[in-house]
Design a protein that fits this description.
Blueprint: E1 2-9, H1 15-23, E2 30-32, E3 39-48, H2 53-60, E4 68-78, E5 86-92, H3 94-108, E6 123-129, H4 134-146, E7 151-157, E8 159-168, E9 171-181
Antiparallel strand pairs: 1-3, 1-8, 2-6, 4-5, 4-7, 5-6, 8-9
Length: about 180
Amino acid sequence: MIRTFVAVDLPESFVGTIAEIQQEFRGINVKLVDPEQVHITLKFLGDVQEKSIPDICDALSGIECKPFSATVHGVGAFPKPSYARVVYVGASPTDAFKRLHAEVERVLKPLGFKKEKRAFTPHATIARVKNIPDDRRKKLVGVIENQSLIEVGKMTVGAIKLKKSTLTLKGAIHETLTEVYL
């Protein structure tokens, strides 16, 4: 079984800015994502049989979506800053990302992948939050609010990637299995 997901990679030029944003979270007891691994997940597929990878790749090649310009900006948190479990930078335009997400859902449905129940919000996770004391939670909320208007950069979304995710003690390691151009 291979743990997989479909994503949009961020440009290498964003890595430094993401790392700078993450520095603000040091000492708060959050688990930072390697800035070189940060991406926008369109759909998490979970564990799939290795033999089904070619079918997934074929399905993804059927996506009907034109390339579009996007901006990565603004730190936020799920479900909300005061009860953050995931800290992220957002991505817009939301409607273009939602169309791309809907296309991923459409082409993978015939392969048995169920549609995500939660509404899709385009974002790139930069940190995960476990249990933190109240004083650090207040600091976390402050950092999120202070970074809410930051701009990481502009990019063209011209491809999606099927990625393999290997979990390690130091965090997930992502490898591209296929790239599909829009």
